[in-house]
Design brief:
alpha+beta, four-stranded antiparallel sheet, 4 helices, single chain, binds ligand 3AM, 28% helix, five-stranded antiparallel sheet, globular, 192 residues
């Protein structure tokens, strides 16, 4: 069986997608021409990037996710402010953060730990929950980087918005020249 490219993520509720759309529109007004914006339907809260995934492992991944999610009750997450990785002076990824949410961190860490024996090594970096709005080109110069930093600081703030997380989804990711295509393969529900 061939490999696919996959990741585990939380799908976003329409009111949050709406705010992200408005935020991207506001940021675009700053003419950040070195940034490739993510289409809103492609924005998710990524919990674990699996990368190359033998299709034969998908039933085992599903089993692990079912075992985990049946031990969690649905919970609320709330979007926070706009920011950039690694920082505003060197913005590579422009994002909207998720407010400190211990249950989300626990869910992510449990997935990380329990999926590892299936051959998906643990991430070295600490989990920093975020929604990627855009990616800055490697070739961006200092002026372009400064414009992005300024836009993030000056962009209008958005109202508080939360959503209930009640499932996690395994996505297949197809990289195409025209952009990534993400297809949900299955979801498992938080049912504790
Ligand atoms: O939406 P974000 O950015 O959080 O950045 C990629 C995206 O998450 C991430 O997986 C999600 C779906 O593509 N991703 C892609 N390649 C990655 C890698 N090599 C990666 N995360 C970690 N390591």
């Amino acid at each position: 069986m061939p490999n696919i490219r996959s990741f585990i993520a939380i799908e976003l509720a329409p009111p949050i997608q709406q705010i992200l759309e408005e935020t991207i529109t506001a940021l675009k007004k700053f003419d950040l021409n070195s940034v490739r914006w993510v289409p809103v339907h492609n924005i998710h809260l990524t919990l674990k990037f699996l990368g190359d995934t033998p299709e034969a492992k998908i039933p085992a991944i599903k089993q692990v996710l079912q075992t985990i999610t049946q031990n969690y009750s649905p919970f609320e997450i709330e979007i926070a402010t706009i920011g950039a990785f690694p920082n505003l002076r060197h913005p590579r990824v422009v994002w909207v953060g998720i407010k400190n949410q211990p249950i989300l961190t626990s869910l992510q860490s449990t997935i990380e730990t329990m999926i590892c024996p299936l051959g998906f090594p643990k991430e070295e970096r600490a989990f920093s929950p975020h929604l990627t709005l855009g990616r800055n080109k490697e070739t961006a110069d200092t002026i372009q980087n400064q414009r992005i930093g300024h836009a993030i600081t000056a962009a209008p703030s958005f109202p508080p918005q939360s959503m209930i997380v009640d499932k996690v989804t395994l996505f297949k990711s197809d990289l195409r020249p025209s952009g990534s295509i993400y297809t949900p393969l299955f979801s498992t529900s938080l049912i504790k």
